[in-house]
Amino acid sequence: MSRAAFDFRLYAITAESCHPGRDLIEVMEAAIRGGADIVQLRDKETPPERLLGQARALRELTRRYGVPFIVNDYPELALEAEADGVHLGQEDMPIAEARRLLGEDKIIGISTHSIEQAREAVRAGADYIGVGPVYPTPTKPGRPAAGLEYVRQAAAEIAIPWVAIGGITLDNADEVLDAGARRLCAVSAIVGSPDPEAVSRELKARITAREAGHAADAAPPAEGPIRLRLNGRDTETTARTLGELIERHGLKDRRIVAEVDGEIVARSEWSRTLLKAGAAVELVHFRGGG
Ligand SMILES: Cc1ncc(COP(=O)(O)OP(=O)(O)O)c(N)n1
Ligand SMILES: Cc1ncsc1CCOP(=O)(O)O
Ligand SMILES: [Mg+2]
Questions:
Q1: How far apart are the first and last CA of the chain?
Q2: Strand partners, 112
Q3: Upper half-sphere CA count for residue 107 (Cβ side, 13 Å)
Q4: Mean model confidence pLDDT for the chain
Q5: For the chain, which end, N or C, has fewer CB atoms within 10 Å of the first or last residue's CB respectively?
Q6: For binding 4-amino-2-methyl-5-(diphosphooxymethyl)pyrimidine, which residues are annotated in this chain's numbering (predicted)?
Q7: Percent of the chain with pLDDT over 70
Q8: Confidence at 273, pLDDT banded by 50, 70, 90
Q9: Residue 167 in contact with ligand 2 by CB distance below 6 A
Q10: Distance between Cα 90 and ligand 1 center (Å)
Q11: Nearest to residue 111, comparing CAs of 75, 165, 176, 150?
């Protein structure tokens, strides 16, 4: 998983205490089948030296499905298990130290509970941010809710991928999306459900339904073609969004990084990134595995 091309919409996190008697890998596989497109190993009970077996099994599972795998709290374990990255909290290892340890290719996410912490995380070079807890949740006892207002602030300001987390269920997912979230993370609602696949599928459907709505809202009225520079060449196109341009070039399902006017555009933003005449678009296609 390339760090530059990294994005996601539905984040599933392990919590074995939520599914006694059911196998961790089977539960997480169900979540992935339902549409979870990033998985985190989070276990606050077991010492990290005893988590390597689970971490390796989750690595194998996520690799099979082409889904990024993140380890909570333990950068060394992330390295040992060949995870794609680590998730850090405000009280965990600083981002700069984790970056030194993990190198340039690994994903580093960080929890934030206020817009000031989110700004600091962006400055420090986080690849994504956890925004929450949106609601109080027994999965994170003692951590007060940051509320929907913080989701609104993040939506207005934060340009790197950020995910709403904390107490999110099928009953309140819509109001979190209404507040501007484009990515959701649910722990107990997914892995504590008798049917993690169905819950994931429904959460993912809610997220993608919003994306389609945003793209439709953002699309300008149809006009004639515009000229732009595509990979250094003058190109005429009737595509209105970066997503349409990528689709027309047959690259939608390929591993590419898209840049407009020197800025990388996250995959989740392609469908609502409007193309302007004269824009410089670079579509970089990765060949080979990794
Ligand atoms: C995606 C995501 N967001 C937030 C957290 C919480 O991390 P942290 O604040 O370090 O708390 P613990 O999970 O370690 O209890 C997370 N793990 N993942
Ligand atoms: C780890 C963490 N960090 C902020 S909220 C949270 C727990 C979210 O779990 P749930 O989805 O069960 O409320
Ligand atoms: Mg932590």
A1: 6
A2: 131
A3: 28
A4: 92
A5: C
A6: 40-44, 72, 111, 140
A7: 94
A8: confident
A9: yes
A10: 9
A11: 165
Q: Output the residue whose Cα is nearest ligand 1's atom 8.
A: 89
Mean pLDDT, to the nearest integer, of 84-90?
98
- DSSP code, position 222: P
Which atom number of ligand 2 is nearest to the Cα of residue 187? Answer: 11
pLDDT digits (tens, 9 = 90+) for 126-177: 999 999 999 999 999 999 999 999 999 999 999 899 999 999 999 999 999 9
Query: What's the token pair of residue 5?
Result: 């091309």
pLDDT value, residue 97: 97
Q: Which run of H or of E encompasses 234?
A: strand 233-237
DSSP 3-state of 148: helix
Cross-strand partners of 257? 284
Q: Supply the DSSP symbol for 229.
A: E
Burial class (CB in 10 A: 0-12, 13-18, 19+), 145: middle
* Structural domains of the chain ordered from first start: 10-215 (3.20.20.70), 226-285 (3.10.20.30)
What's the confidence (pLDDT) of residue 290?
42
Whether the pLDDT of residue 221 is over 80: the answer is no
- Report the DSSP beta bridge partners of residue 111: 130
Using the Cα atoms of residue 260, residue 107, residue 14 and residue 63 in order, give the sign of their dihedral. positive
> In 3D, which of 129, 274, 272 has the Cα closest to residue 211?
272
Task: Please tell me the distance from the alpha carbon of residue 160 to that of residue 87, in angstroms, as a whole number.
Answer: 15
